[in-house]
Amino acid sequence: MSELTLIENTVPWPNGARVAACFSFDMDGESLMHNAHPNTAGKHVCGMSELRYGPTVSVPRILKIFRHYGIKQTFFIPGWCVERYPSAVEAILKDGHEIGHHGYLHEDPYTLPREDERYWTERALDVLVKATGRRPRGYRAPSFAFSDYTLHLLLEHGFLYDASLMGDDVPYMIENEKGRLIELPSPMAMDDWPHYMHSFDFAGTNNQISSPARAFEVFRSEFEAQWQHKGMWVPVWHPFISGRLPRAIAMHEMIGEIMKKGGVWFAPLSEIAEHVQEQIRAGTWKPRIERVPLAESPIPELRKAAE
Ligand code: ZN
């Protein structure tokens, strides 16, 4: 195929790499159950066991695979899970991976009043600082629910980047009247939930379970496209889902293939964001900038109709 680049604003990645890649894992644990069934979560012993599989069985397995290849990646962890799973957190940190902010109890910022979103964000921030000894650099909104207030909080608390949005193939910047933040986007196709997640505990979670071969056909097609057109490849996976044995094997195999192929820069998202920040500072790359929130609601026509 001829060299036709379909991404307009490619980032000059380190060492001439064609693509920046990070297996980002959201270690949600049972926070999902407490959030979905606040009064009865404890009754759901089976569902809880599935979620606990993440921090207890999958995380050590995923870390072993990353160690095998010598790569450092990113884990987003709700504050509540940081408190409940200190040994998983310790193992992640010991191997040099990044831990990012993912809410406190996987609360949904779309449905929270602003003061509540602030409370949970700050509470999780305190937990992360205490557990890791440093402020988190990055944020991913629980369930991708980045609200019209989230950017205010992230700027106020000095975050370097967000990884919740889907607005480009390459990093870009989001801004409001207070400032700008680096956005490291992922498409929905890179989330493991729609490929594998079928649960009797969560209403509407009845996806047909894919084989790893089928799911990885999607993940690989994203990778090939990003490799070819010099973009970025960031899966949004969960230890309790993608750390299950056949899926972990598929990840292990894919990392091996990618390494053989070459031209890939594996890094934690914080390093990718730092690199982007440095390119902007040096004037060697210019980001596209998007205003957040993207739209006022309701739009005037609808407001009129509702009156
Ligand atoms: Zn999550």
Sheet with the most strands, sense and barrel status? 5 strands, mixed
Overall shape: it is globular
Percent of residues in helical segments?
40-55%
Q: What gyration radius follows from the Cα positions, in whole Å?
A: 19 Å
The ordered string of helix (H) and strand (E) elements is EEHHEHHEHEHEEEHHEEHHEHEH
Strand content: 5-15%
CATH architecture: Alpha-Beta Barrel
Q: List the bound ligands.
A: zinc ion
Structural class: alpha/beta
Parts with pLDDT < 50 across at least 5 consecutive residues: none
CATH level 1 class label? Alpha Beta
Q: Considering the protein shown, what is the CATH homologous superfamily?
A: Glycoside hydrolase/deacetylase
The total of beta strands comes to 12
**Terminal residue distance:** 56 Å
Number of domains: 1
Q: What is the count of helical runs?
A: 12
Looking at the structure, the CATH topology is: TIM Barrel
Mean pLDDT: 96
* Strand order within the widest beta sheet: 5-6-8-7-12
Structural features, described:
The protein has 307 residues and is an alpha/beta fold. The protein has one domain: TIM Barrel (Alpha-Beta Barrel), CATH 3.20.20. The protein has 12 helices and 12 strands. It has helices at 31-36, 45-69, 79-84, 86-94, 114-132, 150-156, 193-196, 212-228, 239-242, 245-261, 269-282, 300-306; strands at 19-21, 24-26, 74-77, 98-101, 138-139, 161-162, 172-176, 179-183, 232-233, 236-237, 264-266, 289-291. Strands 5-6-8-7-12 form a 5-stranded mixed sheet, sandwiched between helices. It has a 4-stranded parallel sheet with strand order 4-3-2-10. The protein has a 3-stranded parallel sheet with strand order 9-1-11, with helices on one face. Strand 7 (172-176) and strand 8 (179-183) form a beta hairpin. Helix 2 (45-69) runs parallel beside helix 10 (245-261) and helix 8 packs parallel to helix 10. The chain starts with 18 loop residues before the first strand and ends with a helix. The mean pLDDT is 96. The structure holds zinc ion. Zinc ion (ZN) is lined by residues 26, 28, 102, 106, 142.
